[in-house]
Design goal:
Elements: H1 4-12, H2 14-26, H3 37-50, E1 54-58, E2 65-70, E3 78-84, E4 104-106, E5 109-111, H4 119-136, E6 142-148, H5 158-164, H6 166-169, E7 173-176, E8 188-190, E9 192-193, E10 195-204, E11 210-211, H7 222-233, H8 254-262, H9 267-274, H10 283-291, E12 297-303, E13 313-314, E14 317-326, H11 332-346, E15 351-358, E16 361-362, H12 368-381, E17 386-388, H13 398-403, E18 408-410, E19 426-428, H14 429-459
Parallel strand pairs: 3-6, 3-7, 7-18, 8-17
Antiparallel strand pairs: 1-2, 2-6, 4-5, 5-19, 9-16, 10-14, 10-15, 11-13, 12-14
EC number: 3.4.13.18
Keywords: Dipeptidase, Hydrolase, Metal-binding, Protease
InterPro entries: Cyt/Met_Dipeptidase (IPR051458), Peptidase_M20 (IPR002933), Peptidase_M20_dimer (IPR011650)
Length: about 450
């Protein structure tokens, strides 16, 4: 069967599809403030039903998951599509050119909170399902949808949801469209994410701030205590000195090494985009550090007086907050315990507080389905996709690879400059429509792949 009919439908239904997206964008769904969540979940359920997807709301300890499914037959190849319907708060609202929950089009872009992250991308998935079904009458595979309402607050209840509904969610592949395309403009396939451990180190001195002359050399200074501790934790070369920190890191495979070496790199352009013109490294080093090495980052430090002028005190307390990005097979709790043991040895008076974590995840680049999806993406965009073994950031990808035990792929449909989480968030209309056609191509390719697998199994009997 040819995909041309489905692709023509996307073109002919452009205005209708944009209006459907606008309906979803107008509905507030700010998870961190519990604004509009239930209303958005119900709206999305109804939209899925209208697209021909059997849908229901499944309650969690937090916000509901919108679950949908199309089951061709129980033994058919199954793709699970993940997305999230919650969005970030719109503040600062005065920086929006048009109101954040009143979508508008300017210069070929759709502006509105959630346009790129993630309502525009999840709507591309839903509309692709509808388009393919209308074009062919049925889908060649089973498709399931898990659309959560807590991604913007850390997906705190998603692991328990997946654990509890493993049989319902059983799938051969998890497919996610979230995040931004590569800065080069090429389509991007991500096979994993780094994990993260967030913690706080707190040092306590006297019960209150003291005069730095009258008690100088007498009272301990909590800021210096933290500095002294941090110097035992990380060397000047950047290597972490905590015993066992680098244990269990999964080494890159030969295929992953090839993928890293093939990624385009323009140090000057990247430096300009991140506001650091002194970026001095080659592309292989850049991508390796970004995807295959853990970090040991101080994201905030507080203690004493930092206002205008001078206040001569010995602070009574100081704290450091850290986010530590982790590589596949590292365990955040294991790392946290190693940090605690290190602190106990070097500075037992300093308190270590666990703030949260997310496990890393990586799908093997050697799987045949990676090539199948990559081929579909290439046909959709008429450009070979870049395949990156891991994202530098963290997403709850491990719930699919570790709990559901399924390979997982992330294919962003939003433009690189979508300004997600910021005022004037947007998605280019072409990116939105291309996302619909790309999902159609992926469904089509997986159908052919599943049929080929079935034929091979039957021939081998």
């Amino acid at each position: 069967m040819s995909l041309e009919k489905a692709l023509d439908m996307v073109h002919n239904r452009k205005d209708d599809y944009l209006q459907q997206l606008f309906i979803l964008l107008r509905q507030k769904s700010i998870s961190t403030q519990n604004i509009g969540i239930t209303e958005c979940a119900k709206l999305l359920k109804n939209m899925m039903e209208e697209a021909g997807i059997s849908s229901r709301l499944i309650e969690t300890k937090g916000h509901p998951v919108v679950y949908g499914e199309y089951i061709k037959h129980e033994q058919a190849y199954t793709m699970l599509i993940y997305g999230h319907y919650d969005v970030q708060p719109p503040e600062p609202v005065e920086e929006w050119v048009t109101p954040s929950f009143e979508p508008s089009i300017r210069d070929g872009r759709i502006y509105g909170r959630g346009a790129g992250d993630n309502k525009g991308q999840l709507m591309a998935q839903l509309l692709a399902f509808q388009t393919y079904r209308d074009a062919f009458g049925e889908l060649p595979i089973n498709v399931k949808f898990v659309l959560e309402g807590e991604e913007e607050k850390g997906s705190v209840n998603l692991p328990a949801f997946v654990e509890e509904h493993k049989e319902l969610l059983k799938a051969d592949l998890v497919y996610t469209s979230d995040g931004s395309s590569h800065n080069s403009g090429a389509p991007l396939i991500l096979l994993g994410v780094r994990g993260v451990l967030a913690l706080e180190l707190k040092a306590k001195g006297a019960d209150w701030d003291n005069h730095s002359g009258n008690t100088g050399n007498i009272l301990p200074n909590p800021v210096w205590q933290l500095i002294d501790l941090l110097q035992t934790m990380r060397g000047r070369d950047g290597r972490v000195l905590i015993k066992g920190f680098y244990d269990h890191i999964r080494p890159a495979t030969a295929r992953e090494e090839e993928l890293l070496a093939s990624l385009p790199f323009d140090g000057g352009q990247i430096g300009e985009k991140i506001g650091y013109s002194r970026l001095d490294m080659d592309g292989n080093t850049y991508y390796r550090k970004l995807t295959m090495e853990p970090t040991f980052n101080i994201c905030g430090i507080e203690g004493g007086y930092t206002g205008e002028g001078v206040k001569t005190i010995i602070p009574s307390a100081a704290s450091v907050k850290m986010d530590i990005r982790l590589i596949a097979d590292q365990d955040p709790i294991d790392i946290y315990e190693k940090v605690c043991r290190h602190v106990e040895r070097h500075a037992p008076d300093i308190d270590v507080k666990y703030l949260g974590s997310m496990k890393p995840s990586r799908t093997s680049a050697d799987l045949e389905v990676v090539n199948i999806v990559a081929g579909a993406v290439q046909r959709a965009f008429q450009r070979e996709p870049l395949i990156q073994p891991s994202l530098g950031g963290s997403l709850p990808d491990y719930v699919w690879t570790k709990i559901l035990d399924a390979p997982s792929m992330i294919v962003p449909y939003a433009n690189f400059d979508q300004r997600n989480h910021s005022p004037n968030e947007n998605i280019e209309i072409d990116y939105f429509l291309n996302g619909i056609t790309c999902t159609c191509h992926v469904i089509h390719a997986l159908g052919a792949y599943a049929k080929h697998q079935t034929t091979e199994r039957e021939a081998g009997r």
